[in-house]
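TEACHING EXERCISE
Course module: macromolecular assemblies
Task: Read the component lines below, then compare them to the predicted structure of the full complex.
Student: A.B.
Group: 4
Components provided:
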Amino acid sequence: MVRVEDFGNFETAWCPGCGNHSILKAVKQALAGLDLAPHQTLLVSGIGQAAKLPQYLHCNMFNGLHGRALPAATGARLANPRLKVFAVSGDGCNYGEGGNHFLAALRRNPDITLLAHDNQVYGLTKGQASPTTAQGQKTKTQPGGQPSVPLNPVAIAVAMRISLVVRAFSGEPDHLAAMVAQAAETPGFALVDILQPCVTFNKVNTFQWYKERCYMLGDDHDPTNWAAAMRKADEFGDRIPLGVIWRGDRAPFESLAPGRGTPLAEHRLDRSALEKLMDSFA
Amino acid sequence: MSPNAITILIGGEAGQGLATIGQLMAKALTRAGYEVCVTQDYQSRIRGGHNTFAIRTGPEPVYGPEEGMDILVALNQETVDRHAAHLKPGGMVVAGQKVDLDGHPGVQVPFTELASKAIYHNVAALGVLGSTLCGDLGILERLVSDTFAKKGQEVVDANLEVLRKAYHWFQAQDYSFHCLSPASEGNAADRIMLHGNEALALGALAAGCNFLSFYPMTPSTSIALTLIGKGGELGLVSEQAEDEIAALNMALGASYAGARACVTTSGGGFSLMVEAVSLAGITETPVVIFLVQRPGPATGLPTRTEQADLNLALYAGHGEFPRALLTPGTVEECFHLAHWAFDLTERYQTPVMVLSDQYLADQYCSVPRFDFASLPEITPPLLQVDELGTYQRYALSPDGVSPRLIPGYCEALVKVDSDEHDEMGHIEEGPANRTAQNEKRLAKASGLRAEVIPPELFGPEESDLLLLCWGSGLGACLEAVELLQERGHKASVLHFKQVWPLREDQFMPFLEGAKTVVAVEGNATGQFAGLLRKETGFAVQGAVLRADGYPLTATYVMQGLESWIA
Ligand SMILES: Cc1ncc(C[n+]2csc(CCOP(=O)(O)OP(=O)(O)O)c2C)c(N)n1
Ligand SMILES: [Mg+2]
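Instructor-supplied answer key:
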């Protein structure tokens, strides 16, 4: 039996009151609930405050470059299909710097859970607009207000009918833990877009701001109904739905791409096949 | 260079099948035991444009292209117009009946009579060409049978009929071309023909490479094509990434998780990979980068050749970390150095790059079969460790190399980090730790230095004229030195197949022992000569540089040397 304590306790570099604390707690809770031991799990992250999460629990970790968590995670999945792989990073990392990789992951549908901490701001670099910052929102680098409209990653993911699309909120930790667990159990690409206040740099989307707007999707929402999912994905204003927005049945990438199966670390060189291969050049 | 060597140049538009005719002819010559060296010139387009496929062949080693030709196969008029003036004495043109030979000696082949359908014209051309060289019809027949076997007996028979008809047609002509001198006995049995990129791929597979991520870019793509086409059966996993940034990050993720990984690219794509090169450095993740150069800047000349990305590869990646740069000079070296690159990166856990270029990439050569059994076994990373609770990915060690564990096989955790980290792999910014980890990484450079492949000297140790070259410049220099020696010069070639790290003890005596050292490079600024000067203080006396998109040839080198040999 894996327990929450098995993941350890670390001192963090997050501000007091930051949503990351409860996201970390929910991740540990989800992993323990799935009976996934630290060595069975790989957390791949980019760079940012969110991306530091794998530093603060016992797990395998690939802390890569800003924006590049998804390609590294995809490579790891292809090399070892037995690893349970999570990609963990912020909105800037996933949707900005790594935007092309996000699109490619939606197309591939790899068996990876993407935990996208969405505080609608670049936290680590002190408050510049991110791809999900609201239009018109003023920051030190956008003093006249952010001129572009925000990206809707949830809608894009639904449009691509990946395996699972979830919206969650760090202020609802038990729900979040359940969502992370469901995502981890889903074969194929699962996006968990986690709304999270940045107490220091986002004075608009505060805990209170989210609390007032977020509500739980009920049984009346059918996440396999694409049109209904699109409508829920588009709902981001006075009311913001939480829960499984979309559940699809696309095959995971690994099952379609050729040559997958045994982990590559167990691969042994077949010399007779090599000799035969050389014959094709004779 | 053997006086018996001849050059066959096939010219036409893209899509006319000139590469097919050329490859079949080169393969037939290889099977007959001849030495073969092919240079291809094509343009960045699918159809049209003027392309050439030049086969230099003979019973003795051939190193590279020459400027003239003995047989010109003209698939269109433009080929005659552009090249026939360079026919060597006794040379001939082989063309279709619609092509005007413009007074040049040669034959007009009645292709429509020899072959009912246009798809057989390539084989008809092969038959005529084989006949002009007095080639063995049996070898041509077996080659055609092997080539079309997959398409069924009917197709094979139809092609064989055309082949024989064409072969005999030329024999019946009142025209004789001097036959090729016989190839040396025993050469035929154990030769294969492949180009530089295929040899890189084969070397990678022989090293157990089982993961490729790439984004297509000429002239590197045929490495990926070969790895995918031939490596599938060997269990290679590949992915065409969304861009080169993804390609290298993906390869690093795969390598971390237990794959033996590589990426293939050219200059523009490599520029995008640069941040991840640095990531490989700090995370100490093995990876091989195949960088096949073409002329830049930016898109430059996409299908031409240059050796101008040495500085890029040498300095790519922010921060300081060790690396190795291998620069094969021949197709055989492509194979061996690809294997060696995986060996090095696995043992030193730092990026290793193999630099080739379009000329070498597309250069088909006949070479002896590779001896897989003689290759060193590459030590795989660990799947288990004893000290489960205390394993540290970045444990300090005197040589800088820490035991590399693959995650998921035992309870020990593997944490790799692009942030500066402690021995466990956790982010740690203190100065003492920083210095310790930085020095640990840099310490690996001394191991890499100890294993540097020495440059190879051809010719006398003390020379009047030493040609200094690297990578694909070798062939042109070797041939130039033969010409120089014939003219009574005491000339040598010093060829670097590894350009980083450099070890003075391996080459300074040769440089200092030469009266004149001339750098020969496929770039406009003498990048390698510059590196040498920075590292050793030694300044070459002269340079022959070529950066017009075309490969270095002996003729070009000799012209450049004029003022030194007057
Ligand atoms: C290539 C590169 N560009 C820029 C940065 C600087 N940088 C680090 S984190 C970050 C933004 C982080 O925002 P987000 O991903 O939303 O994470 P958060 O800190 O908000 O959790 C930036 C711009 C970097 N590390 N690397
Ligand atoms: Mg953010």
